Protein backbone atom coordinates (compact mmCIF):
# COMPACT_ATOMS: atom_id res chain seq x y z
CA UNK A 1 0.00 0.00 0.00
CA UNK A 2 2.83 2.42 0.90
CA UNK A 3 4.65 1.70 -2.36
CA UNK A 4 1.44 2.30 -4.32
CA UNK A 5 0.92 5.64 -2.54
CA UNK A 6 4.53 6.68 -3.17
CA UNK A 7 4.19 5.83 -6.86
CA UNK A 8 0.96 7.83 -7.09
CA UNK A 9 2.64 10.89 -5.52
CA UNK A 10 5.59 10.63 -7.90
CA UNK A 11 3.42 10.45 -11.02
CA UNK A 12 1.11 13.31 -10.04
CA UNK A 13 1.85 16.79 -11.32
CA UNK A 14 2.52 19.69 -8.92
CA UNK A 15 -0.40 21.96 -8.08
CA UNK A 16 -0.53 25.46 -6.54
CA UNK A 17 -1.57 23.89 -3.22
CA UNK A 18 1.02 21.10 -3.41
CA UNK A 19 3.90 22.49 -5.46
CA UNK A 20 6.37 19.80 -4.35
CA UNK A 21 4.38 16.81 -5.59
CA UNK A 22 6.74 14.31 -7.21
CA UNK A 23 9.72 15.22 -5.01
CA UNK A 24 11.26 12.99 -2.37
CA UNK A 25 12.98 14.65 0.59
CA UNK A 26 15.53 13.09 2.90
CA UNK A 27 15.75 15.03 6.16
CA UNK A 28 18.91 14.34 8.17
CA UNK A 29 18.00 15.63 11.61
CA UNK A 30 18.47 14.20 15.11
CA UNK A 31 15.77 16.28 16.81
CA UNK A 32 12.32 14.68 16.77
CA UNK A 33 10.69 18.10 17.16
CA UNK A 34 12.56 19.63 14.20
CA UNK A 35 11.90 16.47 12.16
CA UNK A 36 8.20 16.75 12.90
CA UNK A 37 8.24 20.33 11.61
CA UNK A 38 9.92 19.12 8.40
CA UNK A 39 7.42 16.28 8.09
CA UNK A 40 4.48 18.67 8.27
CA UNK A 41 6.06 21.09 5.79
CA UNK A 42 6.71 18.29 3.29
CA UNK A 43 3.31 16.67 3.80
CA UNK A 44 1.45 19.95 3.27
CA UNK A 45 3.58 20.63 0.17
CA UNK A 46 3.00 17.24 -1.43
CA UNK A 47 6.54 15.89 -1.06
CA UNK A 48 7.41 12.46 0.29
CA UNK A 49 9.76 12.46 3.26
CA UNK A 50 12.22 10.06 4.80
CA UNK A 51 14.26 10.75 7.92
CA UNK A 52 17.76 9.88 9.08
CA UNK A 53 18.97 10.87 12.54
CA UNK A 54 22.71 10.57 11.95
CA UNK A 55 25.37 10.62 9.26
CA UNK A 56 25.58 6.81 9.31
CA UNK A 57 21.82 6.45 8.88
CA UNK A 58 21.76 9.01 6.06
CA UNK A 59 24.52 7.24 4.16
CA UNK A 60 22.65 3.96 4.55
CA UNK A 61 19.52 5.58 3.06
CA UNK A 62 21.50 7.05 0.19
CA UNK A 63 22.94 3.67 -0.76
CA UNK A 64 19.40 2.44 -1.33
CA UNK A 65 17.63 5.31 -3.05
CA UNK A 66 18.23 8.75 -4.52
CA UNK A 67 16.04 11.56 -3.16
CA UNK A 68 15.29 14.78 -5.01
CA UNK A 69 16.12 16.96 -2.01
CA UNK A 70 18.38 16.38 0.99
CA UNK A 71 18.09 18.68 4.02
CA UNK A 72 21.01 18.24 6.42
CA UNK A 73 21.24 19.55 9.98
CA UNK A 74 24.81 20.68 10.59
CA UNK A 75 25.06 19.32 14.15
CA UNK A 76 24.61 15.54 14.24
CA UNK A 77 25.52 12.97 16.91
CA UNK A 78 28.24 11.33 14.83
CA UNK A 79 29.78 14.34 13.11
CA UNK A 80 29.19 17.51 11.13
CA UNK A 81 26.43 17.68 8.55
CA UNK A 82 28.81 19.78 6.45
CA UNK A 83 30.76 16.61 5.67
CA UNK A 84 27.66 14.96 4.21
CA UNK A 85 26.80 18.10 2.24
CA UNK A 86 30.29 18.08 0.70
CA UNK A 87 29.91 14.40 -0.22
CA UNK A 88 26.50 14.94 -1.80
CA UNK A 89 27.54 17.96 -3.86
CA UNK A 90 30.63 16.17 -5.16
CA UNK A 91 28.80 12.97 -6.16
CA UNK A 92 27.65 12.48 -9.75
CA UNK A 93 24.86 12.29 -10.66
CA UNK A 94 24.19 15.01 -8.12
CA UNK A 95 21.11 15.28 -5.91
CA UNK A 96 18.95 18.10 -7.32
CA UNK A 97 18.84 20.14 -4.11
CA UNK A 98 21.09 19.99 -1.03
CA UNK A 99 20.24 22.31 1.86
CA UNK A 100 22.02 22.93 5.14
CA UNK A 101 19.96 23.54 8.28
CA UNK A 102 20.76 24.87 11.74
CA UNK A 103 19.38 26.98 14.55
CA UNK A 104 22.58 29.04 14.32
CA UNK A 105 22.36 31.65 11.56
CA UNK A 106 26.17 31.77 11.47
CA UNK A 107 26.17 28.19 10.21
CA UNK A 108 24.98 29.45 6.82
CA UNK A 109 28.61 30.16 5.87
CA UNK A 110 29.69 26.63 6.81
CA UNK A 111 26.82 25.17 4.81
CA UNK A 112 27.63 27.31 1.78
CA UNK A 113 31.34 26.47 1.95
CA UNK A 114 30.44 22.76 1.87
CA UNK A 115 28.53 23.35 -1.37
CA UNK A 116 24.90 23.56 -0.23
CA UNK A 117 22.37 25.17 -2.57
CA UNK A 118 20.64 27.00 0.26
CA UNK A 119 20.17 27.21 4.01
CA UNK A 120 17.24 26.79 6.40
CA UNK A 121 17.53 28.63 9.70
CA UNK A 122 15.49 26.93 12.41
CA UNK A 123 12.79 27.43 13.38
CA UNK A 124 10.94 27.46 10.08
CA UNK A 125 7.15 27.37 10.29
CA UNK A 126 6.06 29.21 7.13
CA UNK A 127 4.74 26.80 4.52
CA UNK A 128 5.16 29.34 1.74
CA UNK A 129 8.76 30.18 2.66
CA UNK A 130 9.67 26.49 2.75
CA UNK A 131 8.09 25.80 -0.62
CA UNK A 132 9.68 28.85 -2.24
CA UNK A 133 13.15 27.87 -1.01
CA UNK A 134 12.90 24.36 -2.43
CA UNK A 135 11.47 25.55 -5.74
CA UNK A 136 14.08 28.28 -6.16
CA UNK A 137 16.91 25.77 -5.72
CA UNK A 138 15.59 23.19 -8.17
CA UNK A 139 17.39 23.01 -11.54
CA UNK A 140 15.44 24.85 -14.23
CA UNK A 141 14.89 21.59 -16.11
CA UNK A 142 12.96 20.08 -13.19
CA UNK A 143 11.34 23.22 -11.75
CA UNK A 144 7.53 23.22 -12.16
CA UNK A 145 6.28 26.01 -14.36
CA UNK A 146 3.69 28.42 -13.05
CA UNK A 147 3.69 26.93 -9.56
CA UNK A 148 4.83 28.96 -6.57
CA UNK A 149 4.73 28.51 -2.82
CA UNK A 150 2.41 31.34 -1.82
CA UNK A 151 0.73 29.86 1.25
CA UNK A 152 0.60 31.99 4.38
CA UNK A 153 -0.10 28.95 6.55
CA UNK A 154 2.06 28.15 9.56
CA UNK A 155 2.79 24.63 10.79
CA UNK A 156 2.87 23.65 14.47
CA UNK A 157 4.76 20.46 15.43
CA UNK A 158 3.29 18.17 18.09
CA UNK A 159 4.60 18.97 21.57
CA UNK A 160 5.04 15.23 22.21
CA UNK A 161 7.96 15.25 19.76
CA UNK A 162 9.56 18.04 21.80
CA UNK A 163 9.27 16.01 24.98
CA UNK A 164 10.85 13.06 23.19
CA UNK A 165 13.88 15.29 22.57
CA UNK A 166 14.11 16.16 26.27
CA UNK A 167 13.79 12.48 27.25
CA UNK A 168 16.65 11.71 24.86
CA UNK A 169 18.86 14.31 26.55
CA UNK A 170 17.85 13.14 30.03
CA UNK A 171 19.00 9.64 29.07
CA UNK A 172 22.34 10.96 27.80
CA UNK A 173 22.89 12.97 30.99
CA UNK A 174 22.26 9.82 33.01
CA UNK A 175 24.38 7.41 31.00
CA UNK A 176 27.25 9.45 29.55
CA UNK A 177 28.87 12.77 30.45
CA UNK A 178 32.05 12.71 28.42
CA UNK A 179 33.38 16.02 27.10
CA UNK A 180 32.39 15.11 23.55
CA UNK A 181 28.89 14.14 24.65
CA UNK A 182 28.42 17.36 26.63
CA UNK A 183 29.36 19.39 23.54
CA UNK A 184 26.73 17.48 21.60
CA UNK A 185 24.13 18.04 24.34
CA UNK A 186 24.80 21.79 24.32
CA UNK A 187 24.49 21.95 20.54
CA UNK A 188 21.38 19.77 20.44
CA UNK A 189 19.55 21.67 23.17
CA UNK A 190 20.46 25.01 21.67
CA UNK A 191 18.81 24.02 18.40
CA UNK A 192 15.76 22.51 20.09
CA UNK A 193 15.36 25.60 22.26
CA UNK A 194 15.47 27.94 19.28
CA UNK A 195 13.00 25.79 17.36
CA UNK A 196 10.54 25.70 20.26
CA UNK A 197 11.09 29.27 21.48
CA UNK A 198 12.45 28.11 24.86
CA UNK A 199 14.61 31.10 25.85
CA UNK A 200 15.54 29.73 29.28
CA UNK A 201 16.85 26.47 27.83
CA UNK A 202 18.69 28.30 25.05
CA UNK A 203 20.54 30.48 27.58
CA UNK A 204 21.51 27.44 29.64
CA UNK A 205 22.74 25.52 26.58
CA UNK A 206 24.72 28.55 25.38
CA UNK A 207 26.37 28.93 28.77
CA UNK A 208 27.47 25.28 28.74
CA UNK A 209 28.82 25.62 25.19
CA UNK A 210 30.80 28.77 26.03
CA UNK A 211 32.29 27.37 29.24
CA UNK A 212 33.26 24.16 27.47
CA UNK A 213 34.86 26.14 24.64
CA UNK A 214 36.99 28.27 26.99
CA UNK A 215 37.80 25.51 29.48
CA UNK A 216 35.83 27.15 32.28
CA UNK A 217 34.00 25.25 35.05
CA UNK A 218 30.72 23.89 33.71
CA UNK A 219 29.38 21.63 36.46
CA UNK A 220 26.71 24.14 37.42
CA UNK A 221 25.65 24.40 33.76
CA UNK A 222 25.14 20.64 33.55
CA UNK A 223 23.14 20.64 36.78
CA UNK A 224 21.01 23.54 35.57
CA UNK A 225 20.31 21.85 32.24
CA UNK A 226 19.43 18.58 33.98
CA UNK A 227 16.89 20.43 36.13
CA UNK A 228 15.36 22.28 33.18
CA UNK A 229 15.11 19.09 31.14
CA UNK A 230 13.44 17.24 33.99
CA UNK A 231 10.96 20.07 34.48
CA UNK A 232 9.94 19.81 30.82
CA UNK A 233 9.53 16.03 31.02
CA UNK A 234 7.45 15.99 34.23
CA UNK A 235 4.19 17.40 32.77
CA UNK A 236 3.62 14.38 30.54
CA UNK A 237 3.74 12.09 33.59
CA UNK A 238 0.60 13.75 34.92
CA UNK A 239 -2.55 11.79 34.00
Description:
The protein is 53% helix and 12% strand. The protein has helices spanning 2-11, 32-45, 55-64, 81-90, 107-113, 127-137, 159-175, 179-196, 199-213, 219-233; strands at residues 24-28, 48-52, 69-73, 75-76, 79-80, 97-102, 118-121. It starts with a helix and ends in a 6-residue tail after the last helix. The longest helix has 18 residues, at 179-196. It is an alpha/beta fold. The chain has a five-stranded parallel β-sheet, sandwiched between helices. It has a two-stranded antiparallel ribbon with strand order 4-5.
List keywords for this structure.
globular, 7 strands, alpha/beta, Bact_response_regulator, 5-stranded parallel β-sheet, 239 residues, Rossmann fold, two-stranded antiparallel sheet, CheY-like_superfamily, phosphoprotein, 53% helix, disordered N terminus
Concise structural overview:
With 239 residues, the protein is of the alpha/beta class.
What pattern of helices and strands is seen along the backbone? HEHEHEEEHEHEHHHHH
Identify the CATH homologous superfamily of the largest domain: Response regulator
Oligomer state equals: single chain
Q: Indicate the mean pLDDT.
A: 90
Could you say what the CATH topology of the largest domain is called?
Answer: Rossmann fold
Low-confidence region ranges: 1-10
Level-1 CATH class name of the largest domain: Alpha Beta
Cα end-to-end separation: 36 Å
Widest beta sheet: strand line-up: 2-1-3-6-7
User: How many individual domains?
Assistant: 2
Share of residues in helices: 40-55%
Shape: globular
Number of strands: 7
Which architecture name of the largest domain does CATH use?
Answer: 3-Layer(aba) Sandwich
Share of residues in strands: 5-15%
Helix count, per DSSP?
10
Largest sheet: 5 strands, parallel
Radius of gyration: 19 Å
Overall structural class, as computed from helix and strand content, comes to alpha/beta
